[in-house]
Write a structure and sequence with these properties.
By secondary structure, the protein is an alpha/beta fold. The protein is built from eight helices and seven strands. α3 links the parallel β2 and β3. The model has no long low-confidence stretch (mean pLDDT 90).
Length: 229
Amino acid sequence: LHTYGPGQGIPELIQALQKKLSNENGFDSATHNVMVTVGANQAYVNCVLTCLDETCKAIVFRPYYFNHVMAIQMTCGDSSVLVGPSSDQGIPDLDWLRETLSNHSDIRMVTIVNPGNPTGVSLSKQDVLQPMVDLCRQHSVWLVLDCTYEYFTTPDHHQPIATFPDDPHVIHIFSFSKSYSLSGYRCGYLVLHQDCQLVWNNMLKVQDTLPIAPPRISQIAALGSLQAG
């Protein structure tokens, strides 16, 4: 327990997560890499530090999760944050996104939380998320899909949240904090398609620089929660 663990995460936890991702979210372990992080917040910081610099812009939609904006501000500056509008029902404005992506060639990332924080709104895959995925692909933009609240759905509408395993430009983020009531252990993870191997290698460098290696005790607790569930 006192030694550095693998930067990607302890192998037993990675294997358990691959099984969960396959059974619940449709990911194939043969085509996707999994990285354990110090909470979903570090997973997002890893994405920002890997994919953005001071010349880039990134999109979030109001009302946004404030830590996402702070990560972009710390890396790229306040002017790099573009805040898009949402409807009164918490649905991001797709027409605004389409126009903004068409008019700004320096946008490199769009971030969506589904179900939303702080709205709690679950976005339709067909009507909202798939068009977003398609727009980001068309403009060569990363789509970060934060799935921290994947189990926060009403009983009569419970179904697996929308994921996009076949789209390499979509980075998926998950968290133990909300899913398994382990907020104090600060354990999350992200999933990246193996077609993005160069990005993955660079993200591992970011991972190694920030926490040296994710805390092993937290990962063991996380592994225990998966096995118990």
